[in-house]
Amino acid sequence: MKVFISGNIAPIGLKQLEENNIEVTQWKENRQITSEELIEACQNQDGLISVGPNKINADFLNACKHLKVIALHSVGFDQVDVKEANKLDIAIGNTPGVLSGATADTAFLLMLAVSRKAFYLHKKILKGEWKNYEPTPELGIELNGKTLGIFGMGKIGLEMAKKCIGAYQMPVIYHNRSNNEEAEKAIGAKYVSFEELLAQSDVLSIHTALTDETKDKFNLDVFKQMKREAIFINTARGGIHNEHDLTEALEQGIIWGAGLDVTNPEPMSADNPLLNMENVAVLPHIGSATQETRNAMAEIIVKNILAGIKGEPLPHQVN
């Protein structure tokens, strides 16, 4: 059986594929594969391991309808036309659960970095601008006892909430489509309306999927409903916030700061004004980028591929 991999995965995954007599072809160029190249590469394959923001849309799926399985190197599947995959009987797998802790760590890191303007002040050292001690300029804010708001209280949101409670005794409110009883029992999280979430959160952390409903959800009108001292954190998908509106909200002091591990588009341009704001911290989508998490993701991917090739249900199946 043959599998094409559109990028790099952890070596443990490649080893396990080899041990299961899977013939692997891997994209090795230091750039994202194009849609046309991906279609061509998959023509004689039984499965695809999709690494990066490949568009698994109707055009791709119909051009590659011979594929038995597509294993995503992600928990999110917003780039997949799931309805079309169902129609063509192509199994789609993802990697949920194993990246919750690492992604929550990234959200926590961004929250703390923004609160103390850490990225901006570090750049001042690099520019030779660290001079005499001054007690009042460029002050940060403290997080102890501040209210954490979670938009999308799933596994990652719950992990983020636990960290914030443990470190800073932050009361937690959240908004979902429905109540998360586990979070309410485990940490005393309180379900609130979307409007209450905006009005009450000192830190608002995004942990939801990108859907038609959440695309551009956080725009200028929404930022205007938040506290002026609020910190906005997004480690989910860049399309959930409107980046132009976020920039305007920060420039006008509508909200206090922002921490982003995801941007729109990705990668972010080096001249993006957000990168030079003192109350902003931006990372290059490193949410799950730990050795432990990437190894675990690779192992799940292999299990999804092997099951799909055999025509069995995937351990983690989207459709």
From TrEMBL:
Keywords for this protein: NAD, Oxidoreductase
PROSITE patterns: D_2_HYDROXYACID_DH_1
Statement: the UniProt record of this protein carries the keyword Oxidoreductase: yes
Location of the D-isomer specific 2-hydroxyacid dehydrogenase catalytic domain: 3-319
Gene3D superfamilies: NAD(P)-binding Rossmann-like Domain
InterPro entries assigned to the protein according to its UniProt record, in alphabetical order: D-isomer_2-hydroxyacid_DH, D-isomer_2_OHA_DH_cat_dom, D-isomer_DH_CS1, D-isomer_DH_NAD-bd, NAD(P)-bd_dom_sf
Domain D-isomer specific 2-hydroxyacid dehydrogenase NAD-binding: 109-287
Similarity annotation: Belongs to the D-isomer specific 2-hydroxyacid dehydrogenase family.
Protein name in the entry: D-glycerate dehydrogenase
Lineage: Bacteria, Pseudomonadati, Bacteroidota, Sphingobacteriia, Sphingobacteriales
